[in-house]
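TA notes, week 10

Several of you asked for a full example with nothing omitted. So below is the full record: structure tokens for the whole chain, then the designed sequence directly under it. When grading your own attempts, check the secondary structure regions first.
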């Protein structure tokens, strides 16, 4: 028997701030990033997903901007330990999930996405949950979308 488990992405304000300070520090010293390092862009924030269980199967997304805009979700691999290392481009998982609402969409219109990519990312997250208790993501906001206008969760089927 299986049960559905909906997990909400939560902003990690401390980690976002640490990554912003890294960018600021490099700019102040007029230094460049390390070879392969992925710096946080101004329109990005770090979010986290905590897994209360490890045996999960991806079911569906409930994600996207609640108003006109675009949200891009990029997952990080299990090799990234944010308290010890800088984020490197090789630690970003593909594909990314892109969700959007276009100008003129009614409030009742469904959020659009690239379904195959979003589904594949959901499956990769479920695979990572088997060996992790927490996973980190970069949320990129564009076209009028911002953190305050995003509602994002992911639903899994949990084996009992």
């Amino acid at each position: 028997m299986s049960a559905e488990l909906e997990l909400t992405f939560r902003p990690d304000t401390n980690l976002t701030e640490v990554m912003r300070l890294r960018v600021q520090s490099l700019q102040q010293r007029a230094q460049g990033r390390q070879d392969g390092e992925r710096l946080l862009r101004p329109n990005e924030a770090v979010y986290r997903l905590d897994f209360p269980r490890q045996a999960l199967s991806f079911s569906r997304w409930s994600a996207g901007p609640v108003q006109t805009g675009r949200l891009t979700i990029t997952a990080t691999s299990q090799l990234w330990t944010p308290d010890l290392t800088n984020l490197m481009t090789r630690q970003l998982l593909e594909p990314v999930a892109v969700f959007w609402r276009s100008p003129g969409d009614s409030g009742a219109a469904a959020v659009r996405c690239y379904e195959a990519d979003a589904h594949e990312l959901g499956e990769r997250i479920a695979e990572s949950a088997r060996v992790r208790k927490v996973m980190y993501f970069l949320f990129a906001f564009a076209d009028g979308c911002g953190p305050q206008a995003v509602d994002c969760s992911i639903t899994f089927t949990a084996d009992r």
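The longest strand covers residues 134-142. Use that as a sanity check on your answer.
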